Amino acid sequence: MQGNIMARPLLISGLIEHATLTHPDSEIVSRRCEGDIHRYTMKEAAQRSKKLANALSRLGAKQDDRIATLAWNNHRHFELYFGVSGMGAILHTINPRLFPEQLVYIINHAEDRWLFVDLTFIPLLEAIKDQISNIEGFVIMTDEAHMPETSLTNVLCYETLIQDESDEFEWPEFDENQAASLCYTSGTTGNPKGVLYTHRSTVIHAQAEIAKEALDIGSYSCMLPVVPMFHVNAWGTPYAAAMTGAKLVLPGPGMDGASLWELIETEKPDLLLGVPTVWLMLLNHMESIGKKLDSVNNVVVGGSAAPLSMIKKFQEDHGAFLVHAWGMTEMSPLGTANAKTRLMDSMSLEERYQLQLKQGRPVCGIEMKIVDDSNNEMPRDGVAYGRLLVRGPWVISSYFKNDDQSSFIDGWFDTGDVATIDPHNYLGIVDRSKDVIKSGGEWISSIDLENEAIGHPELIECCVIGVAHEKWDERPLLLAIRKEGSNVTAEEIKDYLSDKIAKWWMPDDVVFVASLPHTATGKLLKIEVRKKYHDYLLKAENA
Amino acid sequence: MQGNIMARPLLISGLIEHATLTHPDSEIVSRRCEGDIHRYTMKEAAQRSKKLANALSRLGAKQDDRIATLAWNNHRHFELYFGVSGMGAILHTINPRLFPEQLVYIINHAEDRWLFVDLTFIPLLEAIKDQISNIEGFVIMTDEAHMPETSLTNVLCYETLIQDESDEFEWPEFDENQAASLCYTSGTTGNPKGVLYTHRSTVIHAQAEIAKEALDIGSYSCMLPVVPMFHVNAWGTPYAAAMTGAKLVLPGPGMDGASLWELIETEKPDLLLGVPTVWLMLLNHMESIGKKLDSVNNVVVGGSAAPLSMIKKFQEDHGAFLVHAWGMTEMSPLGTANAKTRLMDSMSLEERYQLQLKQGRPVCGIEMKIVDDSNNEMPRDGVAYGRLLVRGPWVISSYFKNDDQSSFIDGWFDTGDVATIDPHNYLGIVDRSKDVIKSGGEWISSIDLENEAIGHPELIECCVIGVAHEKWDERPLLLAIRKEGSNVTAEEIKDYLSDKIAKWWMPDDVVFVASLPHTATGKLLKIEVRKKYHDYLLKAENA
């Protein structure tokens, strides 16, 4: 029997309408590509989203059309988030750090019709313009005064495009499962894969994300998402801002320590969101100029694991709590968050730091389990390793235009991570499943080994892979880049590790290299390293 | 085009599963009918919910079956919330304050199969047992030691029913629009009407409710919902507790000031939820024993409007912020909440109190508008009065087994309230639309007049109604109950009002009465007063 409740769809337009009526004066502050700081209110942003929707309609954009962006975190990108999805079209946010051939691939695969581009990224498009002929026109996200010379054709100016449009627009109503936005992963193998979010998934994700147990966002908040709006919708922060009326500070192209510090000093955010690399730059900059954070309560770290030193530095030097979060493009992205708890309050700082190193507990709505090679569930004891499977109303069920269902198991998504889950449902990411080393039936975490090895003062980057071994199937091999001038030996590194890891985890050899290969987004490309060194131990033994 | 997201249903079982895994140690403390305080953890509650689901299955309960409760806020009622809805049956929470003939009506109308009853309410059932023959059995919510003598037949003991059941139960998956719970309104006219909530509406409502802009609930919270679990699911607090891991303090039958204070002193809640009458009793009790609240941050008040004196008393004597909320059984119930804002921080206390008197801003998900008699939208200027219409994913689209669609207008629900909406989307409830007085084309709020009149020190209750008038259609008539021994006159009351209200609002007469009629839930039954006095002014003029 069905209940008697209105069948109201959960739509992104509902968020911006709520914001317009309820939080009209909330501020959105952006560093623009043009160089200055732009500030306006939520109500103005909403009105300009409607002008944009009218302009897109005039251009002929229809429901389902893909409208792409190559843009920083700024106010015009915010308007695109609501204007494009709100009218029923699909916002495709492109990661400008992809290689040119990947850009070509995804623009064609997505069948983008228009592309909105920040001044910074015009050269990227000029270089590939002949290979993306499906694009009907480029809209340069600036005003007439800043329009550049370009070899692109069918070029419009954003401000001119919208200026004469009405700021009234009746957002259409449609099924909440309508696609709203599209984001491609930059995988380490093959072509990027598209993740097509729905209005429903976006709204439910935002609602879950603002909860205290997740990112703790409300109208009092002032958020600085350094995580890019081209990367999983800046972790949903634009939607969360509309939902709550939080102030939004958008750093534009200024992701370096000095630019971020300038914004922090003037706008006083209490919530920062980004990857560890960004915070390392910020912490170094603040140290160099002798400044401390005083407005910041929480720093949300995702993308890769936060090191202990960073958790401590934020806490002890800046009084800021580091909220370790974990998610994936395939998860909108939020899976878990390690928010402060009552239990932590009663712990010593050292105990608390150890807990903070974990990726946190699932946000309400996300289910997770770890399984063995036969997909049997493994215990939540904090010790057992297993492949991490997740499901929930903002997790994908397939990739965009892709029949491959190999990542989907009985309705669960295989994250490709190996993890532990403890009795309080804290997730600990151990390794990527393709990187974990299977030695004599036991698993060794390549990440744990790398983290220990990088502690050696003469190493600047480490990569641990499993290589073929006649007796144990696989054994760990450590590749390392030495500091300039260092002559540290393999034996010295192994000595250094000997009291830090289990004996059977000891890498069989240490190879010093001049460089290591990386993906477009800076992750180690272990697949290439493995290819090169696969037979390393076999050869050594045969030699 | 649909996105590629898992079709995961939003189910109540998902909340309790999340709680079991993520917040197993959260406390639930109850005052039991048996007289003592009971405490256990969320994990134990979840296990007992599963035992209950197994027991119900053994009794033959199936999806869609209505399982009724007549119970206070306590741990067994909590288990029923999750066990019954979780297994796909429908939890019908009965208001024991209804008149016997209304109890008979709703038990039969709902077609309840089993009825779970607290010790307190057994006599209510014994009195009507011959008229509710559809009930297959009664489960008394106690243990064997406390089982009473009763004339009810087919009686089971709750603890005995569940004790041998397994605490493993696979919650079934079904459509999120499946009915989850049923609650009847105690209207002032006709039979009570049923509101049938869905799993989807319950989960989305809980998620919206915990937001900072709404009731601000997280794992740090300790909630004391005095609002009954038989009244719109205690405003959703049991679901919110499972979602967040908040500690839940359930007052059982102890709704008086002394019992509440005892719980507050020992359990230290930071969030209280209830109707003004309850807080009046608590405030009086604390005053009489010279105690202050020290753990409480927020007091959520709904059901009827909080008077200014209460807002001030909580703030100035107890350091607690009164969150004025507004909702309806038909809205799950939360519509608006008047949470603290940054703007309030910059106001004088007097300005802030004036704003706190409003019912607050819509929770994200609820849309509202005011309309005139032709259903044209009226301005959001804080001045214009109109009929309040709402819509949203937790608002009803019809009453249970009821074809009457007169409250539904173009997909909006007509709340039956007359209200203002200001430019920041704050709602001000002016009157019930059937009570507002239409005098010469202008509207007069009967509630505003009552609130002013009750300020006179010699009156103890007031009722203002519109009565027929030859020239103005309707004019206000004030009926009042004097304090014992008072001889205050109609002229003296009018003098008192003369500088407090607009001249044309002045009641045409003041009639002193010995008593006024009320509904089962304590609301003035103005319909009866109007019937009696409809021609009062016509007769007076004719006389």
Keywords:
26 strands; nine-stranded mixed β-sheet; homodimer; 31% helix; 543 residues; globular; Luciferase, domain 3; alpha/beta; Rossmann fold; seven-stranded mixed β-sheet; GMP Synthetase, Chain A, domain 3
Regarding quaternary structure, what we see is homodimer
Q: Taking strands numbered 1, 2, ... along the chain, how are they ordered across the largest sheet of chain A? A: 2-1-11-10-12-13-14-15-16
Low-confidence stretches of chain A: none
Mean pLDDT of chain A: 95
CATH architecture field of the domain at 8-27 and 38-211 in chain A = 3-Layer(aba) Sandwich
**What is the helix content of chain A?**
25-40%
Just give the CATH class of the domain at 8-27 and 38-211 in chain A: Alpha Beta
Strand percentage of chain A? 15-25%
Treating each run of at least 4 consecutive H or I residues as one helix, how many helices of chain A? 18
Total beta strand runs of chain A: 26
Distance between the termini of chain A: 73 Å
Structural class of chain A: alpha/beta
Return Rg of chain A in Å.
Answer: 24 Å
Shape of chain A: globular
Looking at CATH, the homologous superfamily of the domain at 8-27 and 38-211 in chain A is: ANL, N-terminal domain
Task: Summarize the biggest pleated sheet of chain A.
Answer: 9 strands, mixed
CATH topology of the domain at 8-27 and 38-211 in chain A: the name is: Rossmann fold
